[in-house]
Amino acid sequence: KAFYLLASVERDKGDSPLAIEHFNKSINFADTASTNCDYQQVSKIYGQIALIFHEQRYPQKELEIWKKAATYAKMASDALLYMICQEHMVGAYWTMGAKERAFAKARNNYEECLRLGYLKQAACCLPTLFAYHLQDHDYANARIEITKYKYFSVSYKFSKADDKSPKRQMSTHEVDCRF
Question: In the chain, which stretches have pLDDT less than 50?
Answer without folding.
Answer: 159-179
